[in-house]
Amino acid sequence: MKLYSAKQIYKADQISIKKEEIESNELMERAALQLFNWMHLRMQGAQVKIHLFCGIGNNGGDGIALARHLVDHGYNIEVYVVNYSEKRSKDFLINLDRLKDRKVWPSFMNSDDQLPEIGRDDIIVDGIFGIGLNRTPDAWVAKVIQHLNNSQAFILSIDIPSGLFTDQGPDDFDTIIQSNYVLSFQTPKLVFFLPETGGFIEQWEVLDIGLDPEYLMQTETEYELIGKNEVLTLYKPREKYGHKGTYGHSLIAGGSYGKMGSVCLSSKAALYAGSGLVTSFVPKIGYSILQTALPEIMVMTDAGDNELTDIKFDIEPSVVGIGMGMGTSDATVKTFSEFLKHNKLPLVIDADGLNILSKNKELLKYLPDNTILTPHPKELERLIGSWKDDFEKLKMVKAFSKKYNCLVVVKGAHTIVVNKEKGYLNTTGNPGMATAGTGDVLTGILTGLLAQGYSALDAAIFGVYLHGRSGDIAVESTGFQSLTASHVIENLANAYLDLFKMPEQPVTEEENQSN
Ligand SMILES: NC(=O)C1=CN([C@@H]2O[C@H](COP(=O)(O)OP(=O)(O)OC[C@H]3O[C@@H](n4cnc5c(N)ncnc54)[C@H](O)[C@@H]3O)[C@@H](O)[C@H]2O)[C@H](O)CC1
Ligand SMILES: [K+]
User: Per UniProt, where does (6S)-NADPHX bind (predicted)?
Assistant: First the structure.
């Protein structure tokens, strides 16, 4: 799913109005009707108090138009205009008049002197600011927003939580509505998924207000949201006459004394992801560990007893996944550097591999094109430096990806695969996966997919999705606390099977009776 920027949404707006030969207030009416239908379906006329807080722009206009539909259907509403500017939008004013025709008189708020009382069982509709917010709200508006956040009432935001910028990081976190549910027009917004701002949204849903499909289809976006529909087009089915050679050979290199588990996890994950063959390349200390833990894999040992000191092998794997548990001793740094200088194979680099690159930036020029790097936030900071907010971070990652012609998997709650100018945000995964070894599993999956002939970009997008989906299936039986990296590997099979599962259909009345 594409994530459009505010600029693109405004453009779609203009094109739709022109093509359909409609007034802009008709689009607002569509938006308001969609909002109303959503609420009406759930509330069925319930007399819960609904407080609608509306700004003076079009987001406020949506709220005012929604208020009209609610009052027409007998709902118990109270409307407030958060009067933060004299520049009221045309469609806001049209809808204000329509509301007044119903004898509904909003309270105009010009300061935070008299904040209305809100019951914890009431509902708040947040239509203060939409995608037009372009500077931090005034202090008194921030107080109103804080008052709403403190009310404990359910907050339903129109389009975006008020106070969040659509395409830049916030200046002040106290001026943002903490939404329980966001009904977002046409597209979710990028900020719903970034670490700093994602927490302001508990749940979201897109309402289709019929913006010009042609424009939406043709327009490239900087970011895409990746779900099952997107990865299904990447999936490579197995061929009837395929053999284990068809599905590639993954070499997993890493480990040191006390950290062999990481190589076990990566190697096993590469195998479960579908790699035809897997060889682990480890220091001597790892030989029995790997052979005992994983009978399906082959093991090669380095000259070093406890750490990698001489990364050389006489086999021809399809791809190398390297870095997990490897340590950063002088000998290992030396052999890793030599390896990079001579290597021609596709690479996935994780953990200490990344740490060595961060300390020896001159090695970056040896990365083969489309190498996949999988940093967690600290590793990323070591690699690219620190950032002021999520937007600056993404800009820096894009520049890095472009400069070194590599893919960066920015790990987080919504992992983002960055390929030069473009970012792909993952939708699977859960907080239970913040546990030892899940990163090693991801590296193994990505290596295993590359071995099977997926392009680096497809492997990164699909691998990140599968990893999260396995975790999501696993957590149903483990709970968040007890989810381990091994559970993620064990559920890879279920994640693959889940790709082709049809969504469950609701059971009809007759079917229910015949059961
Ligand atoms: N295509 C669609 O998706 C449709 C969206 N609709 C809704 O319209 C808003 C966007 O409306 P807009 O009037 O452009 O912006 P806002 O409502 O967000 O209002 C902000 C308004 O105020 C000015 N402003 C910005 N920041 C501040 C500030 N800190 N203090 C004071 N004033 C500020 C700014 O200049 C704006 O004019 C969208 O989110 C949807 O809800 C349409 O209803 C249907 C089509
Ligand atoms: K809003």
Answer: 58-62, 130-136, 159, 325, 376, 440
Q: Which residue has the least CA distance to atom 41 on ligand 1?
A: 59
Mean pLDDT of the chain: 96
Can you read off the two tokens belonging to residue 30?
A: 């569509």
118 labeled part of a ligand binding site = no
Residues 97 and 61 in one domain: yes
Interface pTM, i.e. ipTM: 0.97
Q: Do residues 310 and 382 share a domain?
A: yes
Both 319 and 441 in one domain: the answer is: yes
Closest C-alpha to ligand 1, atom 9: 59
- Give yes or no for residue 61 CB within 6 A of ligand 1: yes
DSSP letter for each residue of 227-253: -HHHHHTT--PPPTT--GGGG-EEEEE
To test the pocket of ligand 1, the residue of 88, 92, 131 to mutate (highest count of ligand atoms within 8 Å of its CB) is: 131
What number is the average pLDDT over the span 362-381?
97
- Residues 153, 107 share a domain: yes
CA of 221 to the centre of ligand 2 (A): 23
Is pLDDT at 515 greater than 60 in this prediction? Answer: no
Same domain, 209 and 101: yes
235 shares a domain with 161: no
Q: Whose CA is nearest to atom 22 of ligand 1?
A: 57
159 lines ligand 1 (CB under 6 A): yes
Of 221, 244, 270, the domain-final residue = 221
> Which among 85, 164, 155 is positioned nearest to 126, based on CA atoms?
155
Q: Assess contact for 182 and 161: CB atoms under 8 A.
A: yes
- What is the best residue among 66, 129, 165, 177 to mutate for testing ligand 1's pocket, by most ligand atoms within 8 Å of CB? 129
- CA–centroid distance, 218 to ligand 2, in Å, is 27
The confidence score (pLDDT) of residue 514 equals 59
Shared-domain flag, residues 180 and 253: no
Residue 243 counted as domain residue? yes
How far is residue 71 from each of residues 36, 92, 202, 409, measured CA to CA in Å? 11, 17, 27, 49
The Cα angle at residue 458 between residues 321 and 379, in degrees rounded to 5: 45
**What 3-state class would DSSP assign to 74?**
coil
Task: Report pLDDT digits (tens) over 492-505.
Answer: 999 999 999 887 77
Gap from CA of 413 to ligand 1 centroid (Å): 29
Handedness of CA 420, 423, 429, 434 (dihedral sign): positive
Is 461 found in the same domain as 366? yes
Residue 429, domain extent: 231-499
**Residue 432, annotated as binding a ligand:** no
> Annotated binding residue at 274?
no
Q: What is the CATH number of the domain that holds 193?
A: 3.40.50.10260
- Vertex 340: Cα angle to 339 and 345 (nearest 5): 95
* Count of domains observed in the chain: 2
Give me ligand 1 centre to Cα 56, in Å: 8
C-alpha of residue 175 to centroid of ligand 2, in Å: 12
Query: What percent of the chain is predicted at pLDDT more than 90?
Result: 95
Residue 513 falls inside a structural domain: no
Answer whether 286 contacts ligand 1 (Cβ < 6 A). no
